[in-house]
Amino acid sequence: MEKQREKPYKIVFMGSPDFSVPCLKLLFESKDFDVKAVYSMPDKPKGRGKALAPTPVKTFALEHNIPVRTPLSFKKEPEEIEILRSFSPDYLVVVAYGLILPQSVLDIPKIAAVNLHASLLPNFRGSSPMQYAILNGLKETGNTVMLMSKGMDEGDMLATNKISIEEEDDLEAVHDKLCTSGTPLLAKTLIEYAEGKITPVPQDHSKATYTTKITTDTAKIDWNKTAKEIRNLIYAMSPFPGAWFECDNNTRIKVFRAKVVNCDKKDIRAGELISCCPKTGIVIGCGNSTAIRLTELQRPGKNRINEQCFLCGCNSLKLKE
Questions:
Q1: Cα torsion at 60, 35, 85, 83 (round to 10°)?
Q2: For the whole model, what pTM was predicted?
Q3: Using one digit for the tens of pLDDT, what is the confidence trace for 231-264?
């Protein structure tokens, strides 16, 4: 880092999803920062009409007259590197951007390229840290603000904080907690690091764990897993993309809430429909002779509803073998 620079710190912000917007908003509204430009992923088809739609970050930037760039690749579009350099940023601030940044980009800011990552590094590096925290049944997770390096989420850490994961917290709840706590942490860290008040801490790479991109296949329920594992999958995929299973007519049913239950039945088979009526609910056998009750479901094209409404007028449910 160069010698201490004066406020406001010039920022080029890089982000795409809803999680990134509060960070951009705080930096944009703060007198300590001057957001010179925003980089976000290109518009993508959305909705039934598949019309191109901007990312939430791009939408915010356009609404506030911040210059926006949406390159597909810095390596394939080297002119974008020169455009980025022209903003003369003190910081590159990256929050769930979506593009890998080459070293030639990381070297541009006068102070540093800094990333807010939604896990307690080195745990859950990669694209899906929030989902993996729930999938693994953790009781807490957190945010890490780190210096960016060439390796994926391998940079030295500047600050962390923790949030609790309660029993009924799904992906949306964990997302909101991390966003709420991570936004002020990021702004505070940028100021303190620029003032020389923070000493970066290297990660212990030997303890690193990794996540992969969440897909529709990731969200498929495997009844051979234990009820606890399936329950964690359901909450990790709620509300999107939604954990799912197939009925024997190839209809996909999504599940958003469930609970592990005790079952008196002996010799429970994985995928066995143990109960399916409004009084006792939808109970399905899982691996290791465990059972799960599905309490909030959704048919294709319909709204999410509780199990009683789901079974109203339909007291049978045949699972696909």
A1: 30
A2: 0.93
A3: 999 999 999 999 999 987 889 999 999 999 998 8
